[in-house]
Design a protein that fits this description.
The protein is α+β, with helices and mostly antiparallel strands and 178 residues long. It has 2 domains: 10-56, no CATH class; 58-165, no CATH class. 18% of the residues lie in helices and 28% in strands. It has helices at residues 17-20, 51-55, 59-62, 72-75, 103-117, and strands at residues 37-38, 42-43, 77-81, 85-90, 120-125, 128-132, 137-142, 147-154, 157-165. The longest helix is centred in the middle third of the chain and has 15 residues, at 103-117. The protein is globular. The relative contact order is 0.10.
Length: 178
């Protein structure tokens, strides 16, 4: 048996991250095309692109387990990671793209695995978030930067999810000093 070399994935004509990701340095909002992107072609300032763009990692590009059907310009979804888990970011023009098969079933499998490893799977569509679990979906609405998702668990299974104001870290108590 001969070993087969895996083909390196490339963006090619895919530029969906330039639409679904916010870029603070450019004051670019989620859902708006980057002014430096030529859709279907690429970044016009690639050599001088912002740090956020340089450090961005599209999961489809880096994960060999994600097939061609996950390529963002085909699926209409950009997969990213967060501190808590996996984020599925929908092209605003296709907010239900994640519900199509086989994508939906694969997202549910990730959610099932996530329940045992404390990893969340969140779909972001048009500013709204949906927490996906192995058995249900929790529509969380718009979750602001000053808010957090709170999951209610029974064992490792998520039975409810809500959004609450994030509690800022308490300031350190001051010493009495002399």
């Amino acid at each position: 048996m001969t070993a087969t070399k895996s083909r390196k994935k490339v963006c090619g004509s895919c530029t969906l991250c330039c639409k679904v990701m916010a870029v603070d340095e450019l004051v670019k909002s989620v859902g708006d095309w980057c002014p430096h992107c030529e859709p279907g072609k690429g970044c016009l300032i690639y050599a001088n692109r912002p740090t956020e763009c340089r450090t961005f990692s599209c999961l489809w590009l880096v994960n060999d387990l994600l097939g061609e059907h996950w390529k963002p310009n085909k699926s209409k979804l950009v997969l990213t990671t967060s501190d808590d888990g996996i984020e599925v970011r929908c092209d605003p023009g296709y907010p239900d793209a994640w519900r199509k098969e086989p994508l939906r079933s694969e997202i549910r499998k990730w959610a099932l695995s996530g329940e045992t490893h404390d990893v969340t799977v969140v779909v972001i569509a048009g500013g709204k978030m949906t927490l996906v679990t192995s058995s249900q979906e929790f529509d969380l609405g718009v979750v602001g930067p000053d808010q957090r998702i709170v999951r209610e668990l029974e064992g490792t299974k998520v039975v409810n999810a809500t959004v609450e104001k994030a509690i800022d870290a308490e300031p350190e108590p001051r010493g009495t000093g002399k």
